[in-house]
Amino acid sequence: MPNWRHNVFMFKRAIFTSLVITLTLLCLITLSVNRTLNIWFSRSAMSLLNSDIQLESLWLRSSSTRDIRVAYFIQVSTSNLHLFNRLLYRLYDTQHVYAVHFDCPCNQTTVDSIIRAIQMGNFSNIHIIPHETLTYSGISLVLNTLSAMTYLLKYPAGTSSQKEWDFFINLSGSDYPLLTPCDQVKVLGEAVNMIPTSAYINFLQIFENHDSEYRRSLLYLDPALTMNRKLVSENCLEKKALNPVQVHPFQHYFNFTLYKAEAWMILSREAVKYLTCESFPRWMLASFVNTVSSPEHYFVTVLKGSSIWKNTIIPFAFRYVRWIHPKLPRASTQHPFELDLHGDLFWEDIYESGCFFARKFSQQDSLLQSRIDSEIAGLNSTLLNDLFQLPRLEESFSISLLSKKKQLLEDKRLRGYFCSSAVNFSYHFNRSLETMRALITRHLRLNV
Questions:
Q1: CA pair distance 55, 57, nearest whole angstrom
Q2: Distance (Å, rounded) from C-alpha 80 to C-alpha 117?
């Protein structure tokens, strides 16, 4: 082969070899780059996915309702002792704590049977506080409420946990729940979620315009302060309790504003500590010793008179109470209407109210109570029917239904049985949530 041909062949061979090597290297580089990119994209995608998960988790944590616990205080008198059985059953929950006071004139045999049944049923979160002599509308009712607050601060909420309760709710035996405790704490949880300083939120039904100055212009003597049960009973029978004895010599020198609210309230734990432990509330308590209707004035005047607490009050206590109705003329408004005597007349307002409780009731196992249970609270009618098979409270106090409820509540799978469904909220529960949101929004706007 001539030399020039040989040289051409070798040149072509070198070019071909170079091309093959170059292509091979390009393929290897491409595979390596693809692999690197795939790994990078996979990691990026996983990182983004984890980020989304973390954000979702954060959102869930921020939007979840805090585990709210409540301390309930029930004042039972002779006029509503027969209602206590059903009230306690409807209000009882293993996650909350209860203090009950029975007025001295209550039938002692009935009270003893209740205490014995609670002890035998091992209801460790129900506490019967010692008897105190009380006068309706007197300072003794305030003292009794303060006693219950002090008592409840010593105990955790629930039957087994050591968690402190968050809110204090006082009731009379004539009240009846419109929402289950499970749903009440959901609504209170809305306030906790909306306000960072929710520990300082309190709910009182305040009367902005009131003509009550006359109540401290006269001196009233509360016979309960003698701690003499017979004296109180005699004065109440003769309607002489809390009659004014003389004009207050310093009536024009009071250096604080008198506020008025209903006696029923929802207070934060911190407010309860303040009322029971600090000096200003004690001074105010002494100022109200001889004032009539002091339960309507003391608590709201103390909180509104404090620079720390005056802006923590939401002017709504989630209670449905009717004092006046155009179809029911009355000469006096000293007591609200008994709702179960005019159930149909008030039903629509109760249904739309969004309140936690309604008052007052007087009939045992009334049709209005049953309608509230089924149409507002959404309770199971089969379980409720068992209630009517129990012996009447005057005969004995049966704890069997309450024990059954406790057993169901202690089973985590069955707790939801006593709460509104997450999918199918009741209309009244939604109204309650809407009311809470509106109140808190207004409160935030006013306190910017």
A1: 5
A2: 19
pLDDT band at 224 (very low <50, low <70, confident <90, very high): confident
Architecture of domain 66-210+261-446: Alpha-Beta Complex (3.90)
Q: pLDDT of 361-397, one tens digit each?
A: 999 989 999 899 888 887 765 555 554 454 444 445 6
The alpha carbon of 149 is separated from its chain's Cα centroid by a whole number of angstroms, namely 15
The crossing angle, in degrees rounded to 10, of helices 279-287 and 269-277 is 70
Q: DSSP readout, 162-210?
A: -PPP-EEEEEETT-EESS-HHHHHHHHHHHHHH-TTGGG-EEEEE-SS-
Question: How far are the Cα atoms of 17, 59, 106, 120, 323 from residue 100, in angstroms, in the given order?
Answer: 99, 40, 13, 17, 26
Burial class (CB within 10 angstroms; exposed 0-12, middle 13-18, buried 19+) of 282 = middle
Going from N- to C-terminal start, the domains of the chain cover 66-210+261-446
